[in-house]
Amino acid sequence: MAESIEIQEMIQKVKACEAEIGKGIIGQRDIIRQVLLAILSDGNVLLEGVPGLGKTQLVKAISQVLSTSFSRIQFTPDLMPADVTGTNLIIKEEGNNVFQFEQGPVFANIVLADEINRATPKTQSALLEAMQEKTVTVGKNTYQLPSPFMVLATQNPIENEGTYPLPEAQLDRFLFKLLVKFPSKAELKEIMDITVTNRQVTLEPVMTGEEILSIRSMIRDLPMSDAVMDYALSLVTATHPETSDAPEITRKYVLNGASPRAAQAIIKTARARAFMEGRYNVAFEDVQFCAYPALRHRLALNFEAISDHITADAVIDQLVQDIKTV
Amino acid sequence: MDKQIRQFVKRIRVRLTGQEMINWLQRTLPAGAAVAIMISVISLFVPFYYAPHFEVLALLLSVFSGVGLGIFHAPDLMKCALMADAKGHKERISTALAMADSPNPYAALQKQDAMAAITGFSIRKEFPIRLSIKKCIPLLLLAVLFAGSCFLESPVRQKAQEVHAVKEKAKETVAAIEKVEKGLKEESGLSETELSDLMEQLELSKAELLKAETQTELLKAQERLAQKLETASTQTDNKTLSDALQKAAQLAQSQQADTREDLIKEAKEALEQASDGTNVEKEQAYEKLSELASALGDNELQKAADNYRDSNYSGQDHAAAQSALQQAQNRLNDQSALAENSGSSGNANSSDGSDPSATASDSASSSNNTDNQNNNSDGNSQNNSGGNNSQGNSSEGNNSQGNSGQGNSGQGGSGEGNNGQGGSGQGGSSQGGSGSNGTTGTNSGTGWNYGSKNGQEGIAKVDESITVPEGELGEDENLTGEANGNDSSTYTQSDQSQTWAGSKVSYGSVSGEYKEKAYQKLDGASYPDRLKDQIRNYFDGLN
């Protein structure tokens, strides 16, 4: 009974969070929801969109509402790994020169890695350990990152010169890849209202980091029937062209299918979505909703897909249609 | 809550199973109906008595298979729950079903959620039973076709029914034969040769019975069987065996009587229907009458039937046919009664044979005691050829030819005395007189028939001599034997009978030879079957 009350309270808090963040970020409801899903699922997010769409603002708003620390790293080609993780500095202590580790910007609850594809692979990989292990190793020492920890990386889809595209192995570590779209005219007007006037929007903290950890634990227990689990797994296996029952579109356009991390991502985030909607079970529509952001960066399309202008989302669309729920 | 959720899902399952059954029935019923129609149509052209049974079987199979496949393909509980969730309940019901007795902290909350979804869920509304009109229309058409084909009458169908009825009756008689055969094997008192001959004859009778496809053929087969059994019963010294054979003969005769009764009944019914019926029914009535007349050897009835047909089924001739039929039945009944009454009183009737005023009925019974008659006949019998019992037959008493003539026997009721064919043909033989007698009854034979011993080459008569009647040798047109070399004849008188001795030829060999030659001639001959039967009966009766 007590658990039930606690669950219901947390559901309310999550809804309140979403609403609060929505005050600071006009439009982008889907993006806010999906980012929240990722936070509650203990995952990292790759945001792809043209500059000026409020990606940084979004992350700031999230960190305010969640009462968590926030740091921003602007990735450039000359950024060094130590600039991300931190480094040992020599300091004088009691007359002696000693090394003291100075934490880098990665030591925050929410880290915004802006234009991650502009940094060198070496620097990118420094962030990878943080994303995956939630630790940073400098020299012989390993430092634990704060919990909850989440990396929101951004990349610009139009600037390709001087960039280092993330390899598939690194992409696979992102729970979601979200496509930030240009706001509508009405939304743009509202944005102008907030940003170019004296009107101030103050966001109130709704949740704490501990509550986020608690919610994550609750979400893991959310019931998911075998039929829904099977459905999620069927979607992932359908992305592999080498399987005997792969759909037509997969065999035609997909070079490599999604890894088991995709299945983990879908299942975790589907649970989180059901939780956010106030349901106590996962539905097929939760799986379908989470399939897009979880799979689109994990499908390697072949040249035929490129030449036919087939995107990953189009492939996922067809898979969702082909695979029956009942 | 778990129980309620489960029961709710079960109710959905029942409904979905019903829908599945309907879906499958919509596929299997047309197939079954098509097969039934095919069988029905085939039965219009090919005799197949069990066609309706197979049609019903095809339909039943299609129903059962539809129901069975429907049940087999029915969705399980989880699938039913998912189908219920698909109506907008976001897998609440299926998850609650899966979480029965689960310790999950969400279980209570989730089930409450599911119960809220179940409340107000109308199973009938959400899962209506659907009948595909597209599939129902062909089914209706097939049903109409099937009904139509069932009610179509065809001669082939009628024939199939008749053949079946005949076969069923034949089986009863065959069962009786088998009983007799069993008795014979256990203890017969006959020699090995005699036993094997008798068994062979019985087997032939069985084969003949089983081959019969019309009432007429059955009747004839039964008659021949009765004759054989009668003859065999007189030839054995073993009283038990004789009684058993006699009983079997009586059974065969009673079955024969039943067959005749059936024929008469069918003819009557056909005539009644024909009185206000269509031309087809009138034609059927004619066929029934004709068949009956052929079976009974009743020329009067045949004539009446032919007149009925030739007059284009006029009312007058219809009445005449009915009257002829009634008379035929009366004659049969009289013979049966007479035979029952005369029964073993054959001896008493011997004197009747000599009574010129003997009536047909008397003569009939007397004719039964052929052997006795022969010896007991008085002078009058001399007028009859060879003093044969057939004398008794001549109701006129003076019919020297023993031609039976009309009085004859009322035996076969044919009363036509057709010639001394012992037949008065078939009828004659089975008539009551014979039946009750246990002796020669079956045959009465007119002319010089002693009563048939079908298949038995006159064993008992082997010692008998063909005597030369008064007059010169060779003058009697009825005698074909050769005189001995002396060309002379003598006669002696005895106390009991007058016989002429002299030119003697063994009766057994002569009749046997005649019979053999006759049968050889018949095989392969192109005579009508009816005539062939008459000829065979005649020669069988020679013994």
Low-confidence stretches of chain B: 344-460, 471-476, 491-501
Strand content of chain A: 15-25%
Overall pLDDT of chain B, averaged? 71
In N-to-C order, the SSE pattern of chain A is HHEHEHEEEHEEEHEHHHHEHHEHH
Choose one word for the global shape of chain A: globular
Structure overview:
The complex is a heterodimer of chains A (326) and B (543). Chain A is α/β, with parallel strands linked by helices. Chain A is built from 14 helices and 11 strands. Chain A starts with a helix and ends with a helix. With 543 residues, chain B is mostly helical. Chain B has helices at 2-45, 51-72, 77-85, 92-98, 107-118, 123-126, 133-151, 155-186, 192-211, 215-235, 239-275, 279-296, 299-310, 315-342, 350-354, 360-368, 370-376, 379-382, 390-393, 425-430, 432-437, 507-522, 529-540; strands spanning 492-493, 498-499. Chain B has a two-stranded antiparallel ribbon with strand order 1-2. The N and C termini of chain B lie far apart (97 Å). Chain A binds chain B through residues 3-4, 7-8, 221-228, 279-285, 325-326, and chain B through 78-79, 82-83, 85-86, 90-92, 94-96, 98-99, 102, 104-110, 113.
List keywords for this structure.
A: 326 residues, five-stranded parallel β-sheet, two-stranded antiparallel sheet, 11 strands, 47% helix, B: 543 residues, two-stranded antiparallel ribbon
Provide a compact summary of the structure.
The complex is a heterodimer of chains A (326) and B (543). Chain A is an alpha/beta fold. Chain A has helices spanning 2-24, 29-40, 55-65, 81-85, 121-133, 168-171, 185-195, 209-220, 226-237, 248-253, 260-276, 284-295, 303-307, 312-322; strands at 45-48, 70-74, 86-93, 96-103, 110-114, 135-138, 141-144, 150-155, 176-179, 254-256, 300-301.
SSE arrangement:
The complex is a heterodimer of chains A (326) and B (543).
Chain A lengths: L1 H23 L4 H12 L4 E4 L6 H11 L4 E5 L6 H5 E8 L2 E8 L6 E5 L6 H13 L1 E4 L2 E4 L5 E6 L12 H4 L4 E4 L5 H11 L13 H12 L5 H12 L10 H6 E3 L3 H17 L7 H12 L4 E2 L1 H5 L4 H11 L4
Parallel strand pairs in A: 1-8, 1-9, 2-5, 5-8
Antiparallel strand pairs in A: 3-4, 6-7, 10-11
Helix pairs in contact in A: 1-3, 9-11, 9-12, 11-12, 12-14
Chain B lengths: L1 H44 L5 H22 L4 H9 L6 H7 L8 H12 L4 H4 L6 H19 L3 H32 L5 H20 L3 H21 L3 H37 L3 H18 L2 H12 L4 H28 L7 H5 L5 H9 L1 H7 L2 H4 L7 H4 L31 H6 L1 H6 L54 E2 L4 E2 L7 H16 L6 H12 L3
